[in-house]
Amino acid sequence: MSEERLPTRSENFSEWYNQLVLRSELADYAPVRGCMVVRPYGWALWENITAALDSRFKATGHVNAAFPLLIPRSFLEREKDHVEGFSPQLAVVTIGGGEVLEEPLVVRPTSETIIGHMYAKWIKSYRDLPVLINLWNSVVRWELRTKLFLRTAEFYWQEGHTAHASEAEAVAETMQMLEIYADFAENEAAVPVVRGRKSDTEKFAGAVDSYSIEAMMADTRALQAGTSHNLGQNFARAFDIRYLDRNNQQQLCWTTSWGLSTRFIGAIIMVHGDDQGLILPPRLAPHQVLIVPIHKDEAERALVMEAVERMRRQLGGFRLRLDDREGLTPGFKFHDGEMRGVPLRLEIGPKDVAKGTVALARRDRPGKDGRTFVPQDGLDRAVADLLVQIQHDLFQRALTFRLQNTHQPEDYDAFRQVLESGWADVWWCGEADCEAVIKEDTKASSRVIPIDQPGGQGVCIRCGRPARERAIFSRSY
What we know:
The chain is α+β, with helices and mostly antiparallel strands. The chain is built from 14 helices and 25 strands. The strands form six sheets. An eleven-stranded mixed β-sheet has the order 3-7-8-14-11-10-9-22-25-21-20, with helices on both faces. Strands 16-15-17-18-19 form a five-stranded mixed β-sheet, sandwiched between helices. A hairpin with a 6-residue loop joins strand 23 (about 460) and strand 24 (about 465). Helix 2 (about 40-60) crosses helix 6. The longest helix is centred in the last third of the chain and has 26 residues, at about 380-405. The protein is globular and about 80 Å long.
């Protein structure tokens, strides 16, 4: 890994991000345009994300399954809004085994349609409901403009698909999964989010209502970090998903879908990272502690490594990385650990061994402010406490930043000014024509209509029509 400095975020935020993903070895560009190779360090981060989510899904009764990569083209055409929304992004297979296929096959952009086909076969009675299935897979959406993790032609995600006997159950499921995403984002990733409903223009193709968690990046742009959709009976009607109710009457099911993808890795990078590299939240970091032994000769090395082995046993409950590579200076190893965002660095040399102490350096507080000396005895407790503190401080710092950069302008001119470098929290009429004008004027879109509303009513920030809800507008990724 080169010691050449990154571009700073203030110089060029986009290039800072691109270089950081590559140089921290999270991912690399694939030979197919718009695709990425997730490297082992990036995959380890994704595995920690999937573990945190998967445990939450299973705790709420969901089970995992696998569905095919290829979907008959006719399936997508059954739900008109769905096919219209996804058609520009589809990758289509027309030849298989050297012969032209009777029906083209779509490489899945999402799985609502094939799920609907199978649920129609499986669900016959109210006793079969609810069906609560989650998939861990990849999907393909042929994006014109791509960026590692944030928007790639193929990306990894989970997609949940459920079927219910009533509208109330489907609505409850939609909101439950939104809250699970928010809980994960805030408590595992230390990323504060706003929970809210998407506008009709921004909602998922084929949904009755779409909800999302929105996070503010360090350049103040918004990132849609997870979505939960109430599909009503749209897909049940298209695929004839019916059940016999308790009164022996045929009823249409109510369905939902929800997903969070590797784009969330981009959120972690852009919310927490600094000009030295990644800063990873301890609960998700592939390595929570980096151990750097410091010695000048073989005698010192033997002394230091004996102490290191004792500490490794003491810290067995943490995810550790020992950097004992030969021929590299401690400074290079410090820089490498900082680039990779390891939350806590443990330094030990001969003097530390003699004193019975070690140096602990916090990644989120570079320099002297983040460096302390602690006794080797009780090191596990000191490390545990520091990691908890780092997790808490990362969240609070990100929350403070979002609050400082979210404004409530009183008129349209001020609104346009705010959107140059922040979020605008405003009364909005909710009409598509008004939203289109705002997007044309400002390059910003409605991100969410927050669930937490102040009550009362106001006038729309742009058109002056009566408004009963406030919305967050921002430029976004």
